[in-house]
Request: fold
Amino acid sequence: MCAVLSSKAKRLKKNRKGIWNPPKGKPITVLGIEWNGLLIAGMQGVAQVAAMDYWSRKGEHATTQREVEKRLLRKASHHLGKDVVHIFDRGYAGAPWLEVLNMQKVPFVIRWKGNYSGIDETGEDKAIWKIARGKRSWGQREIEMVQGKKTVKKAW
Reply:
């Protein structure tokens, strides 16, 4: 549904009898509709699609992926409340997305790459793990593990 390479254009541009090394040019893409989804998962049961938003980069309703993601975050935090912890993958680890999360005031967890750096309270640029090292946790909670049938204490 998103932008894809045109197979018809590829077929029409292929080498023909009597023509050697024709100019290749840029690949021809066909624009489509892109989509973002929001999954909700709990300690039990399977993950389910909670919301889905279709969007386009072109036309009168053009928007960006970040705007769609912000809209989905607002919708999720409004419907689910503050008790839900939002979990993000590495693609969301950066200053623009952290600003959005702090403005929304939602609890979140982001998976970071080990070589990312941040600015500590003294204004010094350090690796993220070095900033967190030696700090006391802000709280803790017991989580019951479904697979192992045991309780684990998790601190944050």
About this structure: Helices lie at 7-12, 65-80, 95-104, 128-132. Strands lie at 4-5, 29-30, 34-40, 48-55, 86-88, 108-110, 117-119, 125-127, 140-145, 150-155. The mean pLDDT is 82. The longest strand covers residues 48-55.
